[in-house]
UniProtKB/TrEMBL annotation:
The keyword Transcription does not apply. The keyword Isomerase applies. Residues 8-134, 159-258, 264-372 form the Alpha-D-phosphohexomutase alpha/beta/alpha domain. Keywords: Isomerase, Magnesium, Metal-binding, Phosphoprotein. Residues 377-451 form the Alpha-D-phosphohexomutase C-terminal domain. PANTHER family: PHOSPHOMANNOMUTASE. Belongs to the phosphohexose mutase family. Its cofactor is Mg(2+). It comes from the Bacteria. Pfam families: PGM_PMM_I, PGM_PMM_II, PGM_PMM_III, PGM_PMM_IV. This is Phosphomannomutase/phosphoglucomutase.
């Protein structure tokens, strides 16, 4: 494996690439050894999703870690948030083998330190990459430790389920009918374990664990991937629907009409519930969540903190501020009670509790949190990302009431609208998000910015 190839698979927050073209079990073993050397871990916990390549890759990683003297706890098939649970509960560094919502030929590793603390480029991932590059370039493997680490294989699924259930007040929840689309991903394992304790009639869709994703991609933020769920919710007369991504750390919600509920509205709903438990708490939101999120936080006595997009930034701010909750537009939800890690399942339990504790349908319940017209994220392929961004900045400079900031890309705002334009870290794309007080203003602003971005 040429060292240059690692630049294609070691991303800002994780390792991800095509198997075996870009990485394989030999490289996974080196990553395991480097992980132990960089973290200084004497023990690690390792889990994997249902992709065909996951057992072999995770086993090779475990071998590399054990050869460096670390004891390895293999929890086997699990969701990413189940791995975070194990890392937090056991206070061990962890490695989750998954490529989330990517196609079947991909796989990857999400790494964390003890207590589910994130590892990214600036917190150890660059050092891990450097070691593996050196070993692969020179053809030398790291020498084994004096004593090889031991291996254990505990079952953590039920403990994970009980921990999540202990974090939400479900006592007043009335019976509900809920359709869940697991997308042939890890929700097919975790949802039955959690829901069996709830007054819920579960209508399962695509619960068979199948890393080839025979029904649709396991990415619920793509509208094409929730059409089956929407139709089933309407056909069943269900109270709501839930869709999980491949590693089941994200959860998307559909109301009783089959309409998608914006993740910003779910963030606001959960924030309100968490603030009821911890009055005056801090809530983190990224800069492209709706205006409604900080508004609801302030209305309920909390302090909103705006941050960049990305789980490492959210988790860092949660740790720095002692925040009780954090949410992103991408349906990632973070909880202090879950080691500041993201868990779509816990957010789903909050939604079920909120719906089941009162008589209104979900569409009415979330209407107060869905206050503005939003474009959703729109991608444009652009070679000169910086140049197009500056062209947009210049076009809006000097307009009355306009403010700008560069926290993450370019954000331009007035009292009536805002938009954010961000460059992709891995592709020649500019990502646009627009929000306004009414749909007509949003559409006009969206089209104006896209014309500027896509002008050759």
């Amino acid at each position: 494996m040429a060292a240059a190839d690692l630049s294609q698979i070691v991303k800002a927050y994780d390792i991800r690439g095509v198997v075996p073209d870009q990485w394989d079990e030999d490289l996974a073993e080196l990553f395991g050894a480097a992980f132990v050397q960089v973290t200084g871990a004497t023990a690690v916990v390792v889990g994997h999703d249902m992709r065909p390549s996951s057992p072999g890759l995770s086993g090779a990683f475990a071998k590399g870690a054990a050869l460096q003297g670390a004891d390895v706890t293999l929890i086997g098939l699990c969701s990413t948030d189940q791995l975070y649970y194990a890392s937090g509960k056991m206070d061990l560094p962890g490695a989750m083998f998954t490529a989330s919502h990517n196609p079947a030929r991909y796989n990857g590793i999400k790494l964390c330190r003890a207590g589910a603390a994130p590892i990214g480029q600036d917190t150890g991932l660059a050092d891990i990459r450097a070691l593996v590059e050196e070993w692969s370039r020179t053809g030398t493997a790291p020498g084994p430790a004096a004593a090889m680490g031991g291996v254990s294989k505990p079952d953590t699924l039920q403990d994970y389920a009980h921990h999540l259930l202990s974090l939400v007040d479900l006592w007043e929840m009335r019976p509900l009918k809920v359709v869940v689309d697991a997308g042939n991903g890890m929700g097919g394992l975790t949802v039955p374990a959690v829901f069996r304790h709830l007054p819920v009639t579960l209508v399962p869709m695509y619960f068979e664990l199948d890393g080839t994703f025979p029904n649709h991609e396991a990415n619920p933020l793509d509208p094409a991937n929730i059409t089956d769920l929407q139709a089933r919710v309407r056909a069943e007369g269900a109270d709501l629907g839930l869709a999980f991504d491949g590693d089941a750390d994200r959860c998307f919600v559909v109301d009783e009409r089959g309409e998608g509920v914006p993740p910003s509205a779910i963030t606001a709903l959960v924030a309100r519930r968490e603030l009821a438990k911890r009055p005056g708490g801090t809530v983190i939101h990224n800069l492209i969540t709706s205006w409604a999120v900080p508004e609801v936080v302030r209305e309920n006595g909390g302090t909103p903190v705006r941050t960049r997009v990305g789980h490492s930034f959210i988790k860092e701010e949660m740790a720095r501020t002692g925040a009780i909750f954090g949410g992103e537009h991408s349906a990632h939800y973070y909880f202090r009670d879950f080691w500041n890690a993201d868990t779509g399942m816990l957010a789903a339990l909050h939604v079920l509790a909120a719906r089941g504790s009162q008589p209104r349908p979900l569409s009415e319940l979330v209407a107060e949190y869905d206050r503005y017209a939003a474009s959703g994220e729109i991608n444009s392929q652009v070679e000169d990302q910086a140049g197009r961004t500056e062209a947009v900045r210049a076009a809006f400079a000097g307009r009355e009431g306009v403010t700008t900031d560069d926290l993450d890309g370019l954000t331009v705002a007035t009292p009536d609208w805002w938009f954010n334009l961000r460059a992709s870290n891995t592709e020649p794309l500019l990502r646009l998000n627009v929000e306004a007080r009414d749909a007509a203003t949003m559409a006009a602003l969206r089209d104006e910015v896209l014309r500027l971005v896509r002008t050759r």
